[in-house]
Amino acid sequence: MELDEAFGEVGEFGRSQRRLAAFLVLLQVYVACQSMLIVLVGAVPQYHINQEEIPASRDELAKRIQFTDNFTSIVTEWYLIKQEAYKVSLASSVFFAGLLIGNIAFGPLSDKLGRKPVYLSGLFFDVIFGYVAAFAPSYEIFAMSRFIVGITNGGMSLVSFVLTQEYVGKSFWSFTGSLTNLTFAVGIAVYALLGYYIRQWRYLAFVSNCPGIVFFLLSLLLPESPRWLYSQGNTIEAERVLQYIALGNGKERLTIKLKPCAGTMKTDESAPSVLSLVKHPVLRWRTVILMYIWYVCSLVYYGLTLNAGELGGNLYLNVALYGLVEVPAFPLCMFFIEKPWSGRRKTMTSFLIFAGFACIITMLLPENAGLFFSPTLLALCGKMTVSAAFNIVYIYTSELYPTVLRNAGLGVCSMTCRFGGILAPFVPSMKSLNPSMPFVVFGISGLSAGFLTLLLPETVNKPIAESIEDLQMSKYQLLKNKKVTQLEENT
Fold first, then answer.
1. For the chain, N or C: smaller number of CB within 10 Å?
2. For residues 205 and 34, what is the distance between their CA atoms, to the nearest angstrom?
3. Can you give the three-state secondary structure of 393-458, one letter per residue?
């Protein structure tokens, strides 16, 4: 039988899959705390220097400066103010540079070596260097450890997302994908709550890293992805995992006999690799468009989130709001992306365009526009809609690539996504040109990505390709001309 038929037999989202998915979804709370660590750990408190000129030496500065807020950060410990203030944004950008490398490396590795071993390796080193960052004796070691955490955190979270999707039937991919991103948003609010009660930055970094140990130990019990095993031609092991899932779903031992995967029957050709994304015309155009969309989603998403620390009012409340504002977006995603009249493409286009307009309108508002038209409220609306688009692009991208290249495709797209993350911390500094300039940048980016999304095919209610050879079949040809498709169907 085909793999999708086998999922129908064992249950697409039974008790066993719910447990597996719930565990990996909860992992996103830990991922969010690591990703947003710099927002509170790098927060700049109010301070006063007891002389007109800034002291030349750090020791002299330590004697003259007074921090008035009741929390510590890397700013208060290493006096990252004035000409040293750029190091806070640099530490954030270094983390996103690590994410970029992690996405490039972990995606293809998990396609070749398997989802589980690559995921476990990433999580292990993520925890180790998370503690290194918490106990870093200098800024340089802190920045270095954040760079390595970025590599492992980005790669591990990417593989865990794919693993979550491949445990369940295709009809539940939008649900598990949305739930994963929803949990990440809740994780931001959880991190803000931790920061509210733990005001010492080293204790905060330590405590927020501790759940990683629990997740690593429990992850040792996870099975390998049956879709990956099947795509590699290991049908026996794939059948064994499916039978394990069936037993967990409360069904008796089933006799599952999978057909060989089309992509594994040809032994005279080289295995699929990242270069296949360039060689295959369909995958090439999809990848180029998706790379830009991922870049914009990251730039706007993290730009608005990191900007929460620069808003007036309570720092912890702002960070929590920037996380919780995403929560209403996910029920909207779930409703629209499953409807044939909206689907993935039109829904993501609408969210990106709305986010773009919400950011651009801020420069047209007067200073006394009131609460309902304040820049902060519009920024929150922009954050909500771009997070919805970010949620959809994960699901959408995983459906546009065959199983043998799914992690490679997601990895390449996430690579450009991290370029947006690297630039995001520096966009708020454009306020020196014009107070509304950062939102103009976010707005134009969102609008352009929204219109480009219309060039992609719709995937709702479409089959999932397991191999590159599947893309040659008419039922998978989502980018082909309608006339060509009709001709093939007639023949």
1. C
2. 8
3. HHHHHHHHCCHHHHHHHHHHHHHHHHHHHHHHHHHHHHHHCCCCHHHHHHHHHHHHHHHHHCCCCC
Assess contact for 135 and 151: CB atoms under 8 A.
Answer: no
Question: Tokens 């293809």 appear where?
Answer: 108
One digit per residue, the tens of pLDDT, for the chain of length 491 reads 777 777 888 888 889 999 999 999 999 999 999 999 998 999 888 877 776 666 666 666 666 777 777 889 999 889 888 788 889 889 988 998 898 888 788 888 888 899 999 999 999 999 999 999 999 999 999 999 999 999 999 899 989 998 998 898 878 888 888 888 889 989 999 999 999 999 999 999 999 999 999 999 999 999 999 989 988 888 889 888 888 888 888 887 667 777 776 655 554 455 666 777 878 888 888 899 999 999 999 998 888 776 665 555 678 888 888 788 888 888 888 889 888 888 899 999 999 999 999 888 877 766 565 555 666 777 788 888 998 998 899 889 988 888 778 878 887 887 788 788 888 877 877 776 777 788 888 899 999 999 999 999 888 887 777 777 776 665 554 434 443 344 334 43
Give yes or no for a contact between 77 and 44, defined as CB atoms under 8 angstroms apart: no
Q: Which residues contact 461 (CB under 8 A, 6 or more apart)?
A: 340
Q: Specify the DSSP class assigned to residue 267.
A: -
d(CA 139, CA 87): 9
Strand partners, 48: 66
